[in-house]
Amino acid sequence: MPEEPTDSCRPGKAPVCVGRVSIAAVFLLALLLRLPGLGRPAWIDEVITLEWAARPYAEIFAGNITPFMTATARTMLLLFGSEAMADEMTVRLPHLVFGMAGIFALYVFLRRAFGFLPALAAALFLATLPRHAAYSQEARYYAFAMLAQTGLIAAVFMTVRRFRPAALALVFASTALGIFNHLSFVFALAALAGVGGVLLLLKKDAPRPVRLRRAALFGLVCAAGVGAALTPSMAFSESGRFQKVLGMLHLTGAAPLSDALADDMAEEDAPPPNPKFRLEWGAYWGDYLPYHYLGARRAAVFYPSLLLAVGGLLWLLFHNRALAFLLGALMLVHTPFFFIDAGHTWSPRYFVVQIVALAMLSGFGVAGLAERFQRRRAAVFGVALLYAAFLCLGRAPAYELRHSSHTDLGMKEVARTLAREALPRDTIAIVGAQWGWRPSRVLKYYLERELAQNPSLWSGLSFADCRELADLDRALAARAPNANVWVLSQGAEKWPAGVAQLAQGPAETVADAGLSLLWVYGCGTVNLLGGGDFEEPLDGLEMPKEGVLVSGDEAYGGGRSFRADVSPDKDVEKRPMPTVWFSPVRDPQGSPGPAVLEDGVTYSLSLRLKCADLLPGKFPSRVLRVMVSGREPSGKSYFGDFLRISGTHDWRRYEVQLVPGLNLPSGLRDIKVGVGNRGGSGTFWVDNLQLEKQPRPTPFTRSARTDPSGGGG
Fold first, then answer.
1. Would you state the pLDDT for residue 237?
2. Kindly report the CA angle at 360 between 356 and 362, in degrees rounded to 5?
3. Are 419 and 461 in contact (CB under 8 A)?
4. DSSP states of 425-439 as a string?
5. Residues near 488 by beta carbon (within 8 Å), at least 6 away in sequence
6. Which residues of 537-559 are buried (b: 16+ CB within 10 A; e: fewer)?
7. Residue with more model confidence, 304 or 595
8. What does the DSSP 8-state code read for residue 285?
9. What's the CA gap between 27 and 34, in Å, rounded?
């Protein structure tokens, strides 16, 4: 078995340098693959973590059989929570550490027991595995689970090889921490404790009574670890904890929904009492093993990876049967559940110990391939480099999709939109929730955070779960007078029929978050201006030659928007002043014709703006402006600024109140509203400009919205 030299790196010892640089490169690669995405929005399971992290420790221990993860999250928020770092990143950082520590622990164990090459290859397997990277980037159980499982494998192996107190202490610690983190650790413990006990009995290094005592003591240590893990939560618990343990292990009815998706499910969606589930062959062989455990989306990657692991098991049978039996047992730990009914749907996360086992077996497979070259170090490292290239290139497609099923469904952006535009008494209706798209809990979490400084709006909103569009009709009919109904649905790709049906009705699209769409059935209103969304017809709209209409991703909401750009290189005295002007084309009753603003009445002007590098020109006032022009009764021209904007920001809604006789001249006629760069430089985009006869703007409409009952589409 090739070993890495241990003397220091100096001239004449190039292989030592190569070995150390190789493992350093693996750890650096692992870190670089795990850093991007730490600050992304939380998905539903992480929202559950964040909700628990906001509670006292006593409540965490009383409400969770395995409180390690949620207690860790609370500790992180207490110690490091700040405005400078998002809570999502704060609670994920320990799991990044656990993931990196798992790679390091695997390397150290295999390096000391079997040499450099299998340790390097196994560490590379974990470093590049998309699911391991994903688990290291989320505030859940599984990065730590794999670290504890690695410790337990090493501890049982050490106990079988040499029965010593230090090895038993590691068995106890790994068991206690693993169970304290997640009860699925029991599956790995059962396999390793069972095989380890048999190996202790069969080992011929001591008389039978001694072997019996060793096996019994080993079993007691494992049981003591389980007891130590469950004692804290049992001490804080009320009655029925043993039943909940069985439920969490899926051996009885489903685990209590209060720990998972209860708030995301309508009553009629609740599972039937005592449902029964079995692990399916197709799910394991078609998804769990290839994608989650081997990181392969294609057969050309899956089958070589599987053969390499099988080869590693065969190689290990000839070199160390004890570890071969231990890892073989872990690769079969899922098998009973093909035949046993359980009380919960299965997930590849429950058998992540197989990731650790496959990493070790793959490392031994690489060692077997390189064994014939053990006296030629260049060839050995060549095999390692080929394996690294195979993993990196073969796993790239799977790595890109590592978070595809664990996203916030766009709810963070939806919550920001609602926080800006919703009003008290509005209703938020979620239509067509189903497994894989249950946004309610995530939306409520982010919306409550957005409205932390506006508790009256949060308490004034109501939510409706609508399984079908017919349920939405009832929600629309029950809404309060002059209130909006915001509708959240799946995107067009996943729900084309429903989206098409909503689009045919009076609902207007507010935000497209990809997996989710936000619509609004607004209260009755009239937009006095024409062409506010730059869609045909463009009545009442005057556009400068320096501006263009853009569409697609550049436009707001996927329609069309206006964009104008002024280069900073142009002479400040000769810069163009691209301004788009909007004229009223209907009166407050919705009838065509010019509008006259009444004295003492409050009107609201609202618009969407996006800016990039907007800088003032010769004077500070020469920036992007929102203006009103017209003619006073005396015949004198009027021109007034109401907003001056500079800098850079994404799409943002602006609101202005206009009151003739207060901030506008009385009797103003020939009114126009302008948005333009008046001598500055930079780029601006504008969309959804609306003028209404009411003090607070409503969701945008291009003309009139006079049907307060909406309609279900």
1. 64
2. 115
3. no
4. T-EEEEES-BTTB--
5. 414, 428, 429, 430, 431, 439, 443, 516, 517, 518, 519
6. eeebbebbebbeebeeeebbbeb
7. 304
8. I
9. 11
SS3 category, 167: helix
**Least confident span in 10-19, 166-175, 205-214, 647-656:** 10-19
The DSSP string of 677-709 is ESS-EEEEEEEEEEEESSSSPPSP-SSEE--TT
pLDDT at 269: 44
Bridge partners, residue 676, by sequence: 579, 625
Write the pLDDT tens digit of every residue in 77-104. 999 887 767 889 999 999 999 999 999 9
Task: With a cut of 70, say whether residue 549 has pLDDT above it.
Answer: yes
CA distances from 443 to 342, 427, 446, 470, 516 (A): 31, 13, 5, 22, 11
CA distance 245 to 2: 46
pLDDT digits (tens, 9 = 90+) for 402-443: 666 788 889 998 998 898 888 888 999 999 887 778 899 999
Q: Give residue 325's identity as a one-letter amino acid code.
A: F
Residue entry with tokens 């989320």 = 138
Which among 293, 353, 357 has a CA at the least distance from the CA of 323? 357
pLDDT digits (tens, 9 = 90+) for 144-187: 999 999 999 999 999 999 999 999 999 999 999 999 999 889 99
Rounded CA gap, 604 and 658, in Å?
6
Segment 683-709 mean pLDDT: 82
**Residues in a beta bridge with 704:** 526
pTM: 0.79
- Report residue 599 as tokens: 């004295």
pLDDT, residue 10, reads 36
**Three-class secondary structure of residue 44 per DSSP:** helix
Cα separation, 562 vs 687, in Å, equals 7
From the CB of residue 462, how many other CB atoms can be counted at a distance below 10 Å? 17
- Edge-first strand order for the sheet with 560-566 is 547-551, 560-566, 681-692, 603-615, 647-658
Give which of 598, 656, 409 is closest to 513, Cα–Cα.
409
Q: Which residues have C-beta within 8 Å of that of residue 619, sequence separation ≥ 6?
A: 679
Tokens 């291009």 belong to 702
Question: What angle, 0 to 180 degrees and rounded to 10, lies between the N-to-C axes of helices 208-236 and 165-181?
Answer: 30
Over residues 113-128, the mean pLDDT reads: 92
CA atoms of 308 and 604, how far apart (whole Å):
69
Using alpha carbons, list the distances in angstroms from residue 680 to 68, 619, 708.
56, 9, 43
pLDDT of residue 708: 46
What percent of the chain lies above the pLDDT cut of 90? 45
Q: How far apart are CA 435 and CA 412, in angstroms?
A: 20
In which order are the strands placed within the sheet that holds 427-431? 462-466, 427-431, 485-490, 516-521, 508-512
The first and second tokens of residue 368, run together, are: 């077997």
